[in-house]
Each structure stands twice: as structure tokens, then as C-alpha cells.
Protein 1
Amino acid sequence: MASTDRVGSSRSPDWRNRFLIGYFSVSAVAVFGLWARYFRNGTAAASLFQPAQETGTLLGRTIGALLAGLVLLIAVVGLRTGRNRAQSFGLLGAGMVGYAALNTLGETLAEGSAESALLVLILATSLAAGGLSKDQPLLVVLSGLMACSAVWLAGRTALTAGGSLAAAVTVTSWPGPHYLAEAAMALGTVAGLFARARGRCWGGRLALIGLGTYCYSTLNAMDWAYLNDRTVLPVLAVTLGAAVAGAFHLITKEEASHANPHRFAGAGGAPDGAGRHPLCRQG
């Protein structure tokens, strides 16, 4: 008999689920709208991989990297002690570190730095953490590596800033990796939220990774907005708040589903399906 179970209570989704899907769908449209404006202004695709300069502070991205390290440290400790929500924290941190690595890759490629190889390795580690989320021993190792990577990224950014993280700094980078990170963030988050609403187990994991990228991305964008267009800051603050609140909402739901791992049916109380997660549709 085909399973009709869903993640959480998606048969009658509450306002938080609707808000997350609606808000981040609009955000995705805005992200691709920026792409359209970028090319409509006569910018050739080749310029995505040519050095360009941008001025802003580096405070937000440093905070973002340190927060990613903290989230991943929580994941490592939780996985070692068997906490249900630890895996979700690992996925959230993987999204933050993955975005940070891809965004920083544009700078190292423009500089011709050998650090590019390390950033590619960090990005691959983040992707592996998302794809192997069921293998807890391996996820402990990957989360630990990403936590160390987050600290390194924060230190690298602080050194780039020199005297003050709040001072204006001009950074040279290739725009391509940044735009790729934005596109992956928008598509991944919306796809994950819709898949979760349809009961797909992988949807919640993908959504957590996507919300992690949003957390880092908005902090990174605040660096530019603070010096160049402060009218954007309230919108970025709302987006950051939505991403954080959404992440904790999903983490809480994931913890609840793990705390009640089987749905029982029938007079005999037999498990509803063998070897199947009760709150997820298979496939």
C-alpha cells in the first residue's frame, strides 16, 4: 500500500510553512531579477569571470563565518552525544560554509591564489555533508572539518580587513562564483521547502542547507549595503530573521519527528510499514 504520510503536518500546513514558502519564493524571484538586470545593462557573460572591484565592510561575513563555526561545533557535540537535532545543525552549518567558500573562491581566483584549491575542497566537504547526512560517524568528521574551515575563513577575512572590520575595504573578485552561490541558494531553498511540503524526506535537509546559505548571504550583503545603500538594510534584516526563524522551525520539526519515530496503526499497534520513515513519502 502506497504511503501517504508527510513530513510534519503538511496535510494542513501552519502559517509558518506557508510564510517560508511564500517569502523565499519571492526572494528567489528577486535574486534572478538581479541577474536579469545585470545582463540587461549590457554586461556580457564573460565578465562574470573577469576581475571586478567592490567596496564594503567585512564585519558581516566575519560574523557569518564565526556563526557557522559555532553551529557546526554544536553539531559535532550533539552528534557525539546522540542529540536528535545535531544532524540538522550540521546541515545548516554546511550551507553557511558552502556559500562562504564559493563566495570567497571568486576573490582567490581573481588573485591567482593557491587558496582556491583549499576553497574547492571546503565546498566539496559541504556538499558531501549534505549528501551523506544519514552517515553519522562520517558527518561528525565532516562537521569538524567544516568548523575548522569556518574559523579559517573568519581569520582570512579579518586579515583582509586589516585594522578594522567596520572600515571600507575594496575587494577584487570574479562575480561568477558569487552569482552561482546566489542561484544555488535561491533554487535550493525553494525546492527544499516545496519538497518538504510534499512529504519528501530530502526536502527538509535541502531546505536547511538553503536557509544556512541565506543566513551567511544576508550578513555578507549587509557589508556592501552599509556603505553603499543603507535603504536595503531593513530588507536584509527581515530576510536574515526569516532564515533564522525558518531554520529553527525546521530543526524543531525534525527533532519532533525523530522523537516519535514510528506511527502505529490498527488494533494490534503494529508499525505502519517496515523500515520506512513514518513521516516521509518514499521516492
Note: The first strand starts at residue 52 and ends at 56.
Protein 2
Amino acid sequence: MLPGGYNTAMSIEQLKLEVASLGDREQAELISYTLQLRHAHDPDYRREVTDRLNDADKSHWLTPAEFERRLGEN
């Protein structure tokens, strides 16, 4: 391992090229996985996600198109 926890087997650029070659579904799965890793040890984030998942008020929900639009803003 290199400083910062990087593995010498693949560079960031190689990872980017590999991710770019994935299909839409695989990229979405990878995004989900990396977000899970990022927030795995954050109890506040877990609580917020749990509250949102349990929110039955449909006025708080996003359509898939709105979700994609907002995702593209970040």
C-alpha cells in the first residue's frame, strides 16, 4: 500500500478508465457502493438515511428524473 491507502495494483486513472467502460447499471451499483463506504461509520448520516427511508409522505419523494437531475448538479 502507498500512503493514503492507495493500492499499487491500479492507479486512479486506470480505475477511471475501467469505470468508464462499465454499463449504466454497473456504474450505478459502484456509485452506491462507494457512497456506502464513505458514510459507513457516520452515525448521523445513517440516522438521516433511515429517517428518509421510513418517510411515507410521498410529497417528500423524488421522481427518478428529479433524482438524476439533482445528482447531476453535484
Note: The mean pLDDT is 88.
Protein 3
Amino acid sequence: MKKIASIPTHSFEPISFGDNYLYTQYEKLRSFLQVNFNQKIANFIAKPVINNSEVSWYANYYNDFRPIAEFDQETQGLLLSNYWEILNTINAKIKTLKSKTNNDQNEWYSLLNSVFDSENNKIYSDGQNIVVLWGWKFFNAHENKLPTFIPQQIFSTPTPLVEPLNTEFQPVITDENQNNEPEEFVNETPLIEEPEPLVMEPEPLVEAEEKKSFWARFLEFLKWFASKYWWLLLLLLLIILFLFFFNSCEDKRNDITNKEINDLNNRIEYLRQKTSECCGCETNENVE
């Protein structure tokens, strides 16, 4: 599959379908088109792949595609005529699905009506083949309007656009273990040389997770550690409080001990002075 376009996710609003978004139904939708129509109509829808803030669109063609607005007026008229021919073929099938009793057919009716809405289709082409972007609110009804004047065919050997319509409903049976890799490319454009097959692994249809910074991971680690080893943190807190009070009491004891020693030294010094004074009185009396 080849990338044909990319748009920012914030440029258009995605269409909801049930509890999810419409663009998530690509594999289911493509299987339905293959079973009930042909390969050309199955290739009519592009595959959306979301990566970060961008939607990339892929198609089963090798050629370069661009919006039909970039073609000349005559080519635009032909491409729009082909677009509405395919759309009318699909709409004829959609009308047969509406049922008052069959919920499965009603779900397909709602899905196909949402996808093949000309107001929310953006048409791309390589000048001959047509691919539509879908699943977002493009509000593109004016650009997709069929012109009143349809130009003559500009291709010398036109081929039928679609096969005869099978009006019987054929439900799609999907396998849970189905391989999601894109199908083998079917090239419908005549080429002078057959190019080598383009192998491209589809990117997952999920938004890439942003890489977290060191501090964000560090904070998550602290939250995990606190929730798992809260008792160890409590024990450390008690030990710190005990050491704080022990050191405080020890300092007070040291202050008291130093004060007692100073008082004792003062008393000893006082007694020495008294003793010296008494000894001096006795010596004077003996001399007299």
C-alpha cells in the first residue's frame, strides 16, 4: 500500500459510530466490499492510519494521487462522474439492507450510509483511479457535486467500472485470527514495466504514546514505592523522631552536668580561700 495523503487530526472532526469512531471499521468495511462487489470498489476507500497528531491515508495503487480539485475542469468532470457511478452502485446495495427485523442488516445499512456520504468524502485520484478519504467531517458536498455537463471520455479504451450488482445480502464472516496485513496489490493501470512489489507494514491504528521525561518516571516510581512500602516509610519516620528526642535530652543532660561541675569547682575554690585565711590567723597568733 502506498501513502497518498496526510491530514492533521485537529483539522477535522472524526465521525462517531456506536461506541467507537467510524474510521476503526476499515477492515470490516473492506471485507464487505470485497464479498458483495469487486476489487475495484474494495480499493475505493483509503486506509486511515493515525500516528501522533496526523492521519496518514494509504491506497492499493502505485501511482501518485492528489485531490481532484488540482485537475483541469474536464478531468474533474470525468472523475466525479466515475465517483457518482460507484456511489450509486453502492447505494443500490445499501437500500436492500434496510430491514425491520434483521439487526445485522440494519447495522450494515447504518455503517455504509455513514461511510459513503458525499458530504464527508474527500476524493483523490491519479487521473484515472479514484480513492476517497472518509470517517471525518470534511463538509465537502459542494466539491463533490456532479457537474451538469459531463465531458466525453478522455480514455480511448474505457472498461466497465463495476461488475453486475448482486442484490442478495452476503454477510461478512470475519476471523478473529485474521491477518491485518494489507492485501496483495492489484494494479489496474497499464504499465510499461512491472515495478517491484512495494512491501509496507501497516502502522498500528493507535496514537503513539509520548515518551515520558525522567522526572515523570521518577514521580511514578515514588508513587509505586509509597503505595507498596508505606510501612517502611512509617518506620523510618519513627526512628528519625526517636533520634531527634534522644539528642535533645542528651544535650540537656550535658548542660546540667556542666553546671554542676562549675558549682562544685566554685565551692572547692571557696573552701581553699577560707582555709588559707584560717591558716594565716594561726600563724600571726604564734608570732605574737
Note: Residues 152-165, 173-195, 197-209 have pLDDT under 50 and may be disordered.
Protein 4
Amino acid sequence: MRAMVIAAVAVVGLCGTTPSLAQTAVQRQGPVYGKDQAEADQPNFLVIVRLPEKAGNRFEFDVEEDSEAQFAAYAAGTQLASCLVASRSDEAERALSNAPLSSKERRSLARLTGKGTSCAGVLPGDPAIARGMVAEALYLERHSSPPPLPAIVEETLVDRFAAEEEKRNEHRPLAEVRLSGASDCLVASDLQTADALLRSRPGSEEEVALIDALFVNAPRCAGDRRPAFISLAYLRAYFASALQRASVAPATAGLFLARE
């Protein structure tokens, strides 16, 4: 079994407190960070991210800090994912339709990158990053140009989508459920910005501006400021997964279709 590094970071509204793992474990049992339970139950960034140790030519992504090397590794990873999706789109679609961290997802990702592919390289060992890269590649393969997305999405649709996805993710650790939930809310609230994000270059000023805009435009989801201590790579990966899911989920798929 490979070694794992566990990092815990949190954002509750504009609170910058970093909880201990014990705090994380008991979050649903009472008031959190001095807030009452109703407020604590709102979407927030509370995430435990598992970082793999370096293995072979895999790059170890940092959950907290970005670097030029990390931006380059993310760009290379999305190029690899694009190659894999181009040759095995059905397998990529199957992998992302399965529950995250499930054995079915692992098997589909293994088949996607397995023998017979002409694509050079390996996807990152961290499942969140790998899933995000494949989601980004599949989304852009299905939507090579920006679809006619609405400028404003009704909150009822956003909430329906977030509720559907929460059920899909309920088996994951609580912290990951909350991060996914916040991402689903942010992305579904501003589909145009999320779409533009996936068309930006990792590490570019445009990417930073678009990620910041997602928070500003939907403050009810996770506050109005991007958490400075979560790397852009991790935010992009979670947002990519959320956008790809929004494009196929029953509550929101129709928003990606041409309107008369």
C-alpha cells in the first residue's frame, strides 16, 4: 500500500481557520467554528486531500501551493487526457459516470490508460486530479466551442443539481463531500465562467481571474473569495469534474443544448 500524505484545509465563509482532523470528524455533531448548525450546514470548503508519494514519472501535486512546475504538469496531464479521450471516449465517459473512488471508476480509469493506447505518459496518482483532467478533456471533446449557456442559472436548478451530486458522493469522506458540494454549487451557478475556465491555460492570469469570478458571482456557495491556501490545480480539477457532471446530469443537461 502506497504512503499517503493527508492535508486538511478549510474555508467557512470568510473564516481562515484550519481545523484538526478531530474537528473534521465531528463536524456534523454540533456547532462548527463558533457558528450555529444551520449556518454550518451550508456549502463550504472543508477538504481532506490525499497526496500520493512520487512514483516513477508521476508529478506529486501540492494541495496548498502552486508552482510553475505544477502548472506545467497540469497542462501536460490535460494533454494526455485529451489524447486518451480522443481514442477511448466511451471508456472515459464510463469512468466519470461511476461514483468517485469506487472500484468501477478505478477499473474504468485503468482500462482508459491501459495497454493498446498510443498516448504517452501516466495520469496523476491523486484521484481528484486525474478525474478532473479526464473530465476537462471529455467536456472539451463534447463541446469544442462554448455551448449557448445561460448567463444566469435559477437557484432551484443549481440546488437540484447539487442535491443529485451529493447523493452520488455521499460515500466519500465528509470533507470531500463538502468540497464537491461547494464546487457543484459554484460551477452550476455560473456555467459560462466555468466553461471559459476549462479553455484557459493552467497557471495563466486568465485562469486566476476566472476562478476568482466563480466565487464572486456565487457567494452563497462558499463565500466571495477564493481560498488562498488551496492550489489552483486542485480547484480547477474539482471545478472541471463539476462542469462535466453538470453537462450530463438530469437537472442541468438541458442548459448545454442549443436554444431556439
Note: Residues 68-87 form the longest helix (20 residues).
